[in-house]
Design brief:
The protein contains 7 helices and 2 strands, in the order αααααβαβα. It has 145 residues and is α+β, with helices and mostly antiparallel strands. The radius of gyration is 19 Å and the shape is globular.
Amino acid sequence: MPGFLAEVLSWPENRGATLMIKSAREWGQTPLLFLVGEEHGWAEYRNRLLAAAMTLLDAETCKSCGTPVWLGHSTNNEIQFEVHTTTCYGCAELEKEQDTRVSSTGQTRRKPTPGESPYVVPYNVFRDEGARLPSRREEYARGLD
């Protein structure tokens, strides 16, 4: 069950719940206190289940790009990624003085706009036909590399 909940917590629409569970952990409180405002203690199974699911999701998330490993490490060719960017204008000011970035081969790459950070968004190649990304369970059943 923690595996299923870990996947559910990874869905974009559940970012609020994930934030509350992480906040509870950081403040040394139980997840349900932050989620529903009621203290049930650690004897409550739901608190332990939510804590385990959050720990599992953290362990199964790429530390570099933030993608769940069941998507990012999958060899399933239906799973693709788009690169998006976001800009922090505070970082932009710090980066204005930097030289053009050079790749390991010595070739100049496109210099990002100051403050620009790339991130990835997974999608199913058949999304126009309503296809969804595979679930955590489906990808682990297929076997990850």
